[in-house]
Each structure stands twice: as structure tokens, then as C-alpha cells.
Write a structure and sequence with these properties.
With about 240 residues, the protein is α+β, with helices and mostly antiparallel strands. The protein has two helices and ten strands; from the N terminus they run ααββββββββββ. It has one domain.
Length: about 240
């Protein structure tokens, strides 16, 4: 008499049902979160790149505009070659003559010395005349207004009865400051009318015998910005 053993196996039906199930709500949510984080990271990286690239472009433009003023003044004398810089004795403290634009100098083309530039701003919003110290600009080393350029490289502007009037670089301005400084310490600034009288072995120093420190600050104001931002500052000494 033999004994027969029968082996029972797990039905395959339940395994088939388990393998055919879809994603659960938690799995779908996790996948959405992972994809969303990745997309946000890419967008943030792209935004940072655009911001850095824009600022780099602005820094290059600002340096260019500051150096244009430096090139323009490179060969100019410190003070007016005809009138000079002097103090007229009026019986009181004396009156300084020759600092800033002189009589008959009505525009940047008339500037013939460095102190003419003191306090002048060349701005895309500037108007003719020295009443507000804000002249049209920004300008290049030849005193010409630097125009806005279209994508195809064409200068922007309008045609009038007086000819083609360029549209200045939008948002940009060059602010110039000229100061008298100590010959032995350029960080020490003197008043425009400062001079030193002779004393003992010191022969004195006239009002026009001091080095000048020229500072050009370049600002940019975006279309929707309330105020302009300082982009570049360039400073040099004229001995």
C-alpha cells in the first residue's frame, strides 16, 4: 500500500492582480513634488544666470562710459588757459574766478579745462543749459551723445528740421566731480578757493597750484525703477 503526497501551491491569481495595480495617490503626489522641485531649481538657476549676465553687461557699459570722460579730459589743462584761476580781492574774503564753466561756455563743446566739468551730469534726461547742471548725455570722448542702438545696429532717434536727433542711451548718466586735493595726500580735499600764504621758508601755494581729483560716477536707472543705481566709479589725479 503506497502513500500519495499532494503538494499545494499558492494560486497565481492574487499575484497577477497585485502586479496589475496602478499608482497610489501618495506615489503620484511624491512624483509631482520631485518633478516640481526639479523644475523650480532649473528656473531659479536660469534667473540667476540672467541676472548675473545683465549686471556684467551693465558693469562693462558703466566702465566704458566712465573712461570716455577720462579720455575727453586727458589733454585738457586743469584751469582755463586764458582766464586761469584766481581770487579777486573785494575787501572781504575774496571772490574766486575761473572755476567751472566760464562766460560764453554754453555746452560741452566749449569746455576747455578740467574744472569746467565740476558738478556736471551728462544724463539721458538732461537738458541744455547749466542751470540744473544736467546736460544731455551720456557722451563719448568727443563730446557726442551716445545713442541707443536697435537690434539690427541702427541708431535710434528722430528726424527734425535741424536734422537727425539721436536718442541717448536710455537710463544712463555720467556724474562728474572735480576737487582740489592736498599735493601730499590726495584723500584730503580742499575748498575751490583754498590757497596757502607764504610763511618763513615756505613760498606759499597759489589757488591754481593744487592737484585735482576727478571722479566719474556712472548710474543706471531701469525703466520701472524709482531711482538710479550706481554702477561704476572711476577716480584719477591730475597733478
Amino acid at each position: 500500500m503506497s502513500t500519495r503526497f499532494t503538494r499545494h501551491t499558492q494560486p497565481r491569481k492574487s499575484l497577477r492582480k497585485q502586479s496589475d495595480r496602478g499608482f497610489t495617490l501618495i506615489e503620484s503626489a511624491m512624483a509631482t513634488v520631485i518633478i516640481g522641485v526639479g523644475v523650480l531649481a532649473m528656473v531659479d538657476a536660469q534667473t540667476s544666470f540672467i541676472t548675473a549676465n545683465s549686471w556684467s553687461s551693465h558693469a562693462a557699459s558703466g566702465t566704458y562710459l566712465a573712461n570716455e570722460i577720462r579720455e575727453m579730459t586727458r589733454n585738457l589743462p586743469k584751469h582755463d588757459p586764458v582766464v586761469g584761476l584766481f581770487i579777486e580781492d573785494d575787501g572781504n574774503a575774496g571772490v574766486l574766478h575761473g572755476w567751472g564753466p566760464d562766460a560764453g561756455e554754453v555746452g560741452v563743446d566749449d569746455f576747455d579745462d578740467i574744472d569746467d566739468f565740476d558738478g556736471i551730469t551728462f544724463s539721458f534726461q538732461g537738458t541744455a543749459g547749466f542751470n540744473d547742471g544736467d546736460l544731455p548725455g551720456p557722451i563719448n570722448a568727443y563730446g557726442e551723445i551716445i545713442p541707443d542702438i536697435t537690434i539690427d545696429g541702427t541708431e535710434m532717434g528722430t528726424t527734425t528740421e535741424d536734422g537727425f536727433q539721436v536718442t541717448a542711451m536710455s537710463g544712463w548718466s555720467q556724474q562728474v566731480t572735480v576737487q582740489k586735493v592736498n599735493p601730499f595726500d590726495p584723500s584730503s580735499v580742499y575748498a575751490d578757493n583754498y590757497f596757502e600764504a607764504a610763511l618763513n621758508d615756505f613760498p606759499g601755494r597759489d589757488v591754481d597750484e593744487y592737484p585735482l581729483r576727478v571722479t566719474v560716477r556712472v548710474f543706471y536707472q531701469a525703466a520701472n525703477a524709482i531711482q538710479a543705481d550706481l554702477v561704476t566709479e572711476v577716480m584719477w589725479i591730475v597733478p
